[in-house]
Every structure is written in structure tokens, then in C-alpha cells.
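Complex record, four chains
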Amino acid sequence: MTVVLSLKGKKVALRMKAVSAAVEAGEKGGRGRKASKETRRQQLIEATIDSLAKRGYAETTLADVADGAGLSRGIVNFHFESKENLLIATLQFMADEYGAHWSAALEKAGESAASRLWALVAADFDRKICTKRKLAAWCAFWGEAKSRPTYQALCGARDVKYQDTFISLCAELKAEAGYGYDAETIALSLGAMMEGLWFRLMMGDGLTREKAHAASIEYLVSVFPGHMTHHGPK
Amino acid sequence: MTVVLSLKGKKVALRMKAVSAAVEAGEKGGRGRKASKETRRQQLIEATIDSLAKRGYAETTLADVADGAGLSRGIVNFHFESKENLLIATLQFMADEYGAHWSAALEKAGESAASRLWALVAADFDRKICTKRKLAAWCAFWGEAKSRPTYQALCGARDVKYQDTFISLCAELKAEAGYGYDAETIALSLGAMMEGLWFRLMMGDGLTREKAHAASIEYLVSVFPGHMTHHGPK
DNA sequence: ATATATTGAATGAATATTCAGCAAGTATGT
DNA sequence: ACATACTTGCTGAATATTCATTCAATATAT
């Protein structure tokens, strides 16, 4: 149990180093052989996000994912059956994470429509969600979504459900203060703006999360002057 | 000169039909063997845009492009050396076309900052530029751009140059009417919104060019009330 | 011991690239 | 006019490469 691996030692050491930090931190199985099925799946999903962010969709290979996870070539097919399944699971994971974060923000927000809208906008630019790495992975899927119904459904879930909430919040504000604008139109432009800001963050021409968030707030203040200030909902 | 091709007739007929209308309409060489080098390149670029729109970046193959153009398998390597070159030429073409359209819109616009800004916004949602087909092709490249410097440069050209114009136009309007907002922030949110609208048009959940344009106008009117109306610049 | 997770070399399918040859046009010689 | 050589766009079968998938062997856990 102690000797044996003199020859393989180096390779193993390299692998250990490659394992993502998220998984290294204990949890259930940790790493090595002990990792539970679910842990290993998560580890591979994280490696997939890394690869998508680093090399884009077209250049993401199972070999790269396996290397990134510090595991061997056949590992993905063992845990996910196919590359396609891995990619779908990855997108599913990101969609779930986004949805959970979004719902949590709505929970924590106050009762008023203004504070809810404010909270939703803030949530989109939160550290946890709005990473260059994750934005890049989203974008990789977006690029393929139009020609792949499965991806489109998972990406679109984001739009459909959330856009409806935006619309009704905008409608509430309108009813309260009698803004002249059409609620749907405003919700559309707000949502589109935030998506565009995400996109530019990903492309990364010196735009920061803070600036993007500030631009969104500027929009809220100018469209809903009776409800919003630069520092929060009234 | 008349007989000979009895055997190949059918195949040739099919090919002729597949040739895009744009190329069929005379110009220099027309089609068949006569097509000039430049015409053929353009024909292949159009077929590439078709393939990108239909199948996405990852699924676009040279075979599909060749089939779409009604030509044989080796044709792309003959005219472009490599797939990579074809894709770069395609993106270059789209970027040039966009830029030319944009510049033309600026030329035709009036002198005032308000009418220039109005014209630029309208240009983005013009029939010629804003096709589902072309938006899909743009999106295919966007998805790969982050991991490919060449693509990023060509996609980014759009942002850098045009964003600066947006900023100075917004600054002019601010100087004229003393709006309280920061010009850069407003230009950022406006540009991001338009990109986001493009993106949603491509995803196509019932959003139309007209609605997208209307949303942009709503934004202009609400941010620059002293300069814009729903029907045009003051 | 047995079951399970993992490895990594082998396999095969997809597809980019190459290239020898074909055919339509063009120039030159008779 | 006609024949001959030459150029050039194009073809499509052959080749090379990349990569997902498989699976027999191996390591580890219970």
C-alpha cells in the first residue's frame, strides 16, 4: 500500500494538481478513487465549463475535459455515456444555478415591485453568476443554440420565465406611477440591455461588472424616476 | 460542343439550381465555368453564411458549404486554401458589409447629433443587415470569438469604432440639453441594448425587427426627451 | 472475493486536405 | 478554318488527421 507507484508517481502527482479546487475541498468523497459518482460528475462538469471558456464549443474535446479534471480519456463516457450528454448536463447545471440564484434574489428582496426589480438586476451582475468563465461558457452554448433544440430549450428557459416576471414588475410600476411607456417594451429593452452587457463583459474590453451594473441602474433610474434612485429603490 | 454530357447532365442540372441567386444575376462571369475567381469566392462565402445559420459553427463542414454552393468537395481548398481561411473571409465580409452600411447611414443622416444617433439606431435594424440568417451567422462567430483572437478582432471592430461614435453623439446631446447622465454610461447601455435585441431576434421568440426597433426608440425618447420623439429627432 | 471505478490503447467514424486528372476556354501555328 | 499546345477552374477519389467511443486490463474499496 505504500510502495508500488514509483513509476506512476509523477503522473499521479500531476493529476492531483489539475483537479479543480471546488472538488478538492472535501465534501463527500473528495478526490482520488473515493469520489462518489455525483462528485465525479460535478468535477467533469466544471472541467467542461473550463474547456468551453478556454477553447470555445467547437474546440472542446473529451480529451481536454478529462485532462482538465486530471482523469483519463475514457472517463466521460463512463460517467455520461456520451459527449452530448456531458454538454447537456453542463448546460442544465448552469441553467439550474442561474435559476436558483435568481429565485433566491427574489426571495430576499422586499415586497415592493421596485425593490424586486432592483434585486433581479443586481442578481445578474453578482460575483457568483457573472464570472468571465461562466459568461464564456454561456456564450459557447448560445452560438450553437439556434441549431440545437435541446440547447435552445435550456437557454430559452432563462428568457421565457424571467422575462414574464420583468414584464409584470414593469407593469406594476407603471400602474403605481402612471409612466407613459408600454410595460412589455420596457421589459424587453431592459432584458436585452442586460444580456448585451453580459456579452460585452465576456468579450472583455475593459468593461467591469461594476460598470455594467451601474449602466443598468442608470437605465432603471431614467425610466422609473418615481421609483428608483442611484442607490436603491425608493 | 452539344452532346457529350448526356451522362453528367442530371448532376450538372442540380448544381445549377443550387447556385445562389445573387451570383446567377450576371455581374462579371455569372456561373458555370465562366465565374471569375472573385465571384466564386463570394458564392462560397454566401454558402458559408447559409451553413453557419442553418447548422451552427461546430456543424459547419466544407462538404455542406460545397453542396450549398452546388460545387464539388475540393472547391473550398482550391479557392481559400483552408477552412479556417474561408471562415475568416466570411467574417471579414460580414464585418465590411456592416461597416459600409453603418457609414452610409451616417452619411445620409442630417448634421445634428440627434438625427445622426437616430440614423445609427435605425441602421442596425435595417432589412439589409438585420436578417435572421445573418444574425445567426454573427452569433456563430461570437460563440467562438473569445477563444480566437482573429475572430475577436473582427467582431470587436464593430464595438470599438462604433462605440466611440455613440459616446461622442451622446456627449453632444448632453452638452446641448444638460442631461444629468454620464455620456459613456448611456452609450454603453444603448449599445448593449441593441446587441441584446439582435441576439433575441436571432433566437426568435416572436420578436420582430419592428418591435426591436421600437424598443430602441423608446429608450432614446426616454433618455433624450429634449431631442427625440417617437417619430424622429426633433 | 466481489463489485466498482478507472485507465489507456485500439477502433472506427467523420471530415479536412491533397492531388492527379478532366474539361472549358484561349493562344499559336498551319 | 482547323489542329495543337497551353492555361485554368474544377472534380472526386485517396489520404491524413482528429476525436468520440469501446473495452480488456487494472486498481481500489467494501
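Note: Residues 1-33 of chain B have pLDDT under 50 and may be disordered.
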